[in-house]
Design goal:
single chain; 410 residues; alpha+beta; FAD/NAD(P)-binding domain; eleven-stranded mixed sheet; six-stranded mixed sheet; 11 helices; 23 strands; globular
Length: 410
């Protein structure tokens, strides 16, 4: 019998299982799907060492008005999502105050800055170097005014946190990315990130490493968790398991798992969509057009086109309205080729209103731990918050106590 059960086999859960295993714990990892097949599969494949500041909610009235009227394709929302999301969205707006945002960015920068190094050890041990590229990403600007503003803003962030960036002229961008058919005024290249050409495969490689080291991975649909004596019982479609410690790394499904125990964890559920394309021209590096709303990612499966965020309720039916517009916009500056999938992939991202992940013990129950709420940076932060949680579980100490559930009254 394992002495720790980890629920969720995305990047967060698999990394947590590895970190606890490395400290001598016997770990059982459970998910309803194979490792890396949920939200971790569908991201942009970036390990964001440069992500010093989380994405705040816009504060100026014109930007909020455009979101309210659904004019901004970066953000889409539906009326049926508002009842369940309203309080979390208000808290998100409050935490986006400039002074508050700058304060929480100190912690955010501290954990994202170490993420590439935390990944590299696992990448080497898992034998996954073939899908890793030591390249960041570029933002292209079509107009000189936009480029000047973007360059100034990027430089301010880089100076504030000690980040590396490269400014490319229009000619330099055209030489670096000949596939682009639009003439750009220039681009910003962020160099503290590394990229992965198959995010789902990287999570699977980490899970395979966990299994080779003696860990157990089980596919099971979890129906309930319950305290028993000094431990926990997990009920699932593959049977019941017991352990002294239970870690919930189930992303957007975490609030539902802990609600019967008396905890209310408010999240903003942001859904993203993607499609792959083949037969067109390929890019050298991940690229976003600052005047458009999608991101292009070179992957082993083809060129992945990723949308902005869609605020949804749990269980909402797919509604890829943003993707059609993004595809049309993208075809204006690159030959995408043909669609690979008939239907787009979609996944929900667990975004905390204060933009920081939740890592640590819940207060009312002994042996119940969270590693969740990473928003857009779960793929980046998996190994980092796994190390923080493992330290906390084994020593009672953590480098960032502000991440603990206690900050939310949990």
């Amino acid at each position: 019998m394992a002495d720790v059960i980890v629920l969720g086999a995305g990047m967060i859960g698999v990394s947590t299982a590895l970190a606890l295993q490395a400290r001598g714990r016997d770990v059982l990892l459970i998910d309803r799907k194979a490792p890396g097949r949920e939200t971790s599969y569908g991201n942009g494949g970036l390990i964001h060492g440069e992500a010093a500041e989380p994405h705040p909610m816009p504060r100026d009235l014109s930007a909020l008005w455009n979101i309210a009227l659904r004019r901004d394709n970066n953000i889409h929302w539906t009326f049926d999502a508002l009842p369940s999301q309203a309080r979390a969205l208000f808290d998100y707006w409050w935490h986006s105050q400039p002074a508050r945002h700058m304060e929480l960015s100190k912690t955010y920068h501290a954990i994202t800055a170490r993420s590439p190094a935390d990944h590299r050890g696992l990448i080497e041990a898992a034998g996954a170097s073939d899908i890793i590229r030591d390249k960041g990403y570029r933002n292209g600007f079509g107009s000189k005014d936009g480029f000047d503003r973007g360059r100034a803003a990027a430089q301010a962030v880089a100076d504030r946190w000690g980040l590396k960036l490269r400014v490319l002229s229009g000619d330099e961008l055209a030489a670096a990315e000949p596939a682009l058919t639009r003439r750009y005024a220039g681009a910003i290249e962020w160099q503290d990130a590394i990229s992965c050409t198959d995010p789902g495969a990287l999570v699977q490689a980490y899970a395979d490493l966990f299994a080779r080291r003696g860990g157990t991975v089980e596919k099971s649909e979890i129906s309930a968790i319950a305290p028993i004596g000094k431990g926990w019982r997990v009920h699932g479609s593959a049977g019941a398991h017991e352990a002294a410690d239970l870690v919930l790394a189930a992303g957007p499904w975490t609030p539902r798992l802990i609600a019967p125990l008396g905890y209310r964890l408010r999240m903003v559920r942001k859904r993203g969509y993607h499609l792959h394309f083949k037969g067109g021209t390929s890019l050298d590096m991940i690229f976003a057009d600052a005047d458009r709303t999608g991101v292009l990612i070179p992957t082993r499966l083809g060129t992945r086109l990723l949308t902005g965020a869609q605020v949804v309720r749990e269980g909402a039916a797919p509604n890829p309205v943003q993707l059609a517009k993004v595809e049309a916009q993208t075809r204006e500056f690159i030959d995408l080729g043909r669609r690979v999938e008939a239907q787009p992939w979609h996944g929900d991202r667990p975004c905390m209103p204060d933009m920081l992940p939740v890592v640590g013990a819940l207060s009312k129950h002994r042996g119940l731990w969270l590693n969740t709420g990473h928003g857009h940076q779960g793929f980046t932060l998996g190994p980092t918050t796994a190390e923080l949680l493992a330290d906390d579980m084994l020593t009672g100490q953590t480098a960032h106590p502000v991440l603990r559930p206690a900050r939310l009254g949990l």
